[in-house]
Amino acid sequence: MDFGFSEEEERFRQEVRDFLQNEVTEGLIKECDANVGYGPHTWEFLRKLGARGWLVPVLPKELGGIGATPMQQFILNDEVLYYRAIPIGLSGVMITSLLEGYGSEEQKREYIPKLARGEIEFAAGYTEPEAGSDLASLKLSAVEDGKDFILNGQKIFNTGCHYAQYVLLAVRTDPSAPKKHQGISLLIVDMKTPGITLQPLWTMDGERTNAVFYDNVRVPQKNLIGEKNRGWYVLTTALALERNFPTGGVRRVFEDLVAYAKETKRSGEPLIKNPLVRQSLAQLKVEVEVARLLAYRVAWMASKGLIPQWQAPMLKLFVTELMYRLGNAGVQIMGLYGQLEEPSKWVPLRGWIEHLYRHGARRAITAGTNEIQRDIVALRGLGLPR
Ligand SMILES: Cc1cc2nc3c(=O)[nH]c(=O)nc-3n(C[C@H](O)[C@H](O)[C@H](O)COP(=O)(O)OP(=O)(O)OC[C@H]3O[C@@H](n4cnc5c(N)ncnc54)[C@H](O)[C@@H]3O)c2cc1C
Q: Ligand 1: does its nearest atom lie under 6 Å from the Cβ of 206?
């Protein structure tokens, strides 16, 4: 089986690399490393991506894209992560796919051009204190009142809400529906609407996420995506799009770790002379390669219009657990230096390894926990009964 890319895809990859080499500035990397959301450098970078049609690449030129294939879109995401440019990925792709599939003409006109130009961002507003893995239990109520809905309730871990202009909010519009996944709707909510308050939450990897409270928040009914009470089906499309994990970020950290081991001496001997270090790096090389092939398979399936029902969950759980193993091995290889963070002058590789160790634990929870991914692989991949 040949996993090679076509000449055109390789040309596109080179074009993306040339762009990133010039445009990923120190300011942007610092902002991404700070993990507190988009700042001025990120917004500027988004606008530059937008000017090239790369925020919504699969859309045609007249809608702000470049008519890219799903494989080109994958290459773009992969390279952006390799260059450590955006921590959360390109959410424009997810929202535009949802609006293209389910949105009204007015919504498409209103949001897609701004997303394509990098002027706005959406946060994901799904999880609640009592509805995480069991998302269909969500309760935040949306009651019709004239031309509006009135929202009351609480969300938790809604990460982008402090810098995004809008949140894609999952709400309960029919509390008496016979099954809990029925009676859910999806709304676009402007974060500046009166009645919304945010409380910051800090994760163990130093990232800001939020608890968000809705107190009699008035949202126009025209902001409903798709049909009322049928939001679950839109939501599952959004979640599936989140699990397509390019591995560029992991690959970059691994390459940097190998370079560090080659360049660094301990007790006068290069680290790579140590048999334990060599064994550890060789094992990681195998796993990084497996991750890359799993990612290519998911991208290839998407390009053929196939749904990677268990292949995408398999990729998500493998890559996120690899982040943890890579962070762990890297910290061991670096010894006591491995635990340092910036601004320590002794910190190796800007603290990326140490951070990845903690970040892996966070990524194993978000976009569906890895236990849930294993459940999906068991159910759909192995055909085991529920
Ligand atoms: C840093 C961070 C950022 C996040 N960002 C967002 C965001 O932007 N928007 C958003 O909407 N959500 C976000 N989330 C929420 C995330 O998707 C949920 O935390 C996740 O789905 C798990 O839900 P929970 O925390 O309620 O845990 P629970 O669902 O209560 O799970 C607790 C534990 O039980 C296990 N478990 C639960 N059910 C099963 C089962 N059926 N089989 C096996 N094991 C099971 C889980 O794997 C987990 O280990 C974020 C979370 C974190 C930590």
A: no
Nearest CA to 216 among 292, 140, 165? 140
Instruction: Give the distance (Å) from ligand 1 centre to CA of residue 370.
Output: 9
Report residue 374 CA to chain centroid gap.
Answer: 19
Mean of the pLDDT values across residues 135-161?
97
Q: How many CB atoms lie within 10 A of CB 162?
A: 17
What pLDDT was estimated at residue 183?
A: 96
Classify residue 8 as exposed, middle or buried by CB count within 10 Å of its CB (0-12, 13-18, 19+).
exposed
User: Which secondary structure element, helix H or strand E, spans residue 218, and what is its range?
Assistant: strand 208-220
- The band of 382, judged by pLDDT with boundaries at 50, 70 and 90, is very high
Task: Show which residues are catalytic.
Answer: 242
Q: Which helix (H) or strand (E) holds 28?
A: helix 26-34
At residue 229, the pLDDT reads: 97
Q: Report the C-alpha gap between 277 and 30 in whole angstroms.
A: 29
Task: Indicate which atom in ligand 1 lies nearest the CA of residue 371.
Answer: 47
Q: What secondary structure does DSSP assign to 145-173, as a single string?
A: ETTEEEEEEEE---GGGGT-SEEEEEEES
Range list of H helices, 243-384: 248-263, 275-303, 311-334, 352-363, 370-376
Measured from the CB, is residue 89 less than 6 Å from ligand 1?
Answer: no
Say if strands 148-155 and 208-220 run parallel, antiparallel, or are unpaired: antiparallel
Please state, in angstroms and rounded to a whole number, the distance separating the CA atoms of residues 198 and 214: 9
Q: Ligand 1 within 6 A of 159 CB? A: yes
- Banded pLDDT at 89 (limits 50, 70, 90): very low
Q: Which of 369, 370, 373, 386 to mutate to test the pocket of ligand 1 (most atoms within 8 A of CB)?
A: 369
pLDDT tens across 325-354, in order? 999 999 999 999 999 988 899 999 999 999
Residue 379: predicted pLDDT: 96
The full set of domains in the chain, from first to last, is 7-120 (1.10.540.10), 124-234 (2.40.110.10), 243-381 (1.20.140.10)
Q: Indicate if the pLDDT at residue 245 is higher than 90.
A: no
